[in-house]
Amino acid sequence: MKYEVVMGLETHAELNTDSKLFCGCSTKFGSEPNTQTCPICLGLPGVLPVMNKKAFELSLKAALALNCEISKFANFDRKSYYYPDLPKNYQISQNYFNIGTNGYVDIVVKGEDKRIGIHNVHLEEEAGKLIHPETSDANYSLIDFNRAGVPLLEIVTEPDMRSVEEMESYMQTLRNILLYVGVSDCKMQEGSLRFEASISLKEEGSKVFGNRVEIKNLNSMKAVLKVIAYEISRQSDLLDENKEVLMETRLWDEVDSVSRRMRTKEEAHDYRYFLEPDLVPVWIDQKWIDETKTTIPELPVNKRQRFVNEYHISDYDAGVLTEDKSLADYFEECVKLSQNSPKELSNWIINDILRELNERKMNVQDFIVSPEMLVELIKIKPTIGSSIAKDVFIEMVNTGKSAPSIVNEKNLTQMDDVSELNEIVAKVIKENPKAAEDYGQGKKNALTFLIGQTMKVTKGKANPKILAEIFKERLSASSK
Ligand code: ADP
Ligand code: MG
Ligand code: ZN
């Protein structure tokens, strides 16, 4: 039997706010445990939550960037469950009126466009963080409530994804949009972006979906992709043996690379959702929507298309440049400053700058070589030659000095004085009579050798084009 995989993804993104969703406590990551708490986020009796306007606005912004229909008003609901990281025994979330519904994200997979539906976008509060001791004989767990009450955006897709590649592309595109819009820092290593994947198999061609399994607490895109591969094989084995795939919630065990059953799938009624009585509804009028729309920057897909049209670079290059907004800004800044072709600038950024940034695990905003400095280097490149320009670039990265000052200091300007080069060429021919003769007899790579020898003598500074001409002229003359 051939199966087709059907997948949906729930993404949790911590919002970029200074304070928590319902109190003034800081959201700063990495502080001493339990130093950023108050009676509200600790869930003490008698306290009242107050909505953080910035968090609400960021959610609205995200919902608009994800092409959602915006609800006329937003209510909040209590989702009741008991867990040590949830001091109130309920989470304030949205169940009946989500901020955004019916949106979509366009992705590109293997050159093909595909639209992934967004079922809803809603705002909720984070739980605290349980810390389990590493030693297996410890009989306690610790809890840090610094995270409790941090605003969290949940983005739920339709079950529209049909392959691992589509899932990967969706996650990257979504992350990129959230970063562009500035709603979340999306730092997966700090837990700012987390995923829950739903996976089921159906017979190929069939319209009937199979039972799905939901995998909770996936902290990286890599983990999502691994668990999908694992589930596809686990579920197809079950179906091959005519066994049922149980609707359940599973956990991914990173160490053993397996998913494990956690519980049977919970349903909405298990949570006893009801309207949160301590918060007033938020009315969202058209004016607010229109104003918010104006604050959304050009999104990656549009920027990518514009780069292709406006700068005549390839779609692939445009994709790389727009993957990170600050990189796209860097590129455009260079284009503005330079007379050179955008293609050349894009090559430098994609090949040389990205390599250095990756090595340093650094963002281009913190890179020592500014757009001005890169443009300056490209401007003087004709006087030093391409290969020396690469060395100068490395020197710039290491020292922060400008290209002209490095070229001056090291006296790297290219030799293109014909009479001076003529003399050197004469000497090289004299010292390498065999190669000169070979060339005369039609062995073309003897020329490469001779030019190489000359480059050695001139420490790479001879203009290779002029050299080749001089050699050809001299050697054809001498062989006649
Ligand atoms: P719940 O709130 O119980 O988690 P939802 O209906 O909100 O359930 O769906 C959660 C996720 O599961 C969504 O991302 C959705 O796209 C996905 N999903 C729904 N049905 C299927 C299915 N048959 N196979 C795979 N994913 C599914
Ligand atoms: Mg769910
Ligand atoms: Zn607090």
TrEMBL record:
Official protein name in the record = Aspartyl/glutamyl-tRNA(Asn/Gln) amidotransferase subunit B
One Pfam family recorded for the sequence: GatB_N
Alphabetized, the UniProt keywords read:
ATP-binding, Ligase, Nucleotide-binding, Protein biosynthesis, Transferase
What quaternary arrangement does the UniProt entry report?
Answer: Heterotrimer of A, B and C subunits.
Instruction: State the EC number(s).
Output: 6.3.5.-
EC main group: ligase
Q: Which gene encodes it?
A: gatB
Which species is this record about? Candidatus Scalindua rubra
GO annotation (BP), single: glutaminyl-tRNAGln biosynthesis via transamidation
> What InterPro entries does this protein's entry cite?
Asn/Gln-tRNA_amidoTrfase_suB/E, Asn/Gln-tRNA_Trfase_suB/E_cat, Asn/Gln_amidotransferase, Asn/Gln_tRNA_amidoTrase-B-like, GatB, GatB_C_1, GatB_Yqey_C_2, Gln-tRNA_amidoTrfase_suB_CS
Q: Which reaction does it catalyse?
A: L-glutamyl-tRNA(Gln) + L-glutamine + ATP + H2O = L-glutaminyl-tRNA(Gln) + L-glutamate + ADP + phosphate + H(+); L-aspartyl-tRNA(Asn) + L-glutamine + ATP + H2O = L-asparaginyl-tRNA(Asn) + L-glutamate + ADP + phosphate + 2 H(+)
Q: Which family does it belong to?
A: Belongs to the GatB/GatE family. GatB subfamily.
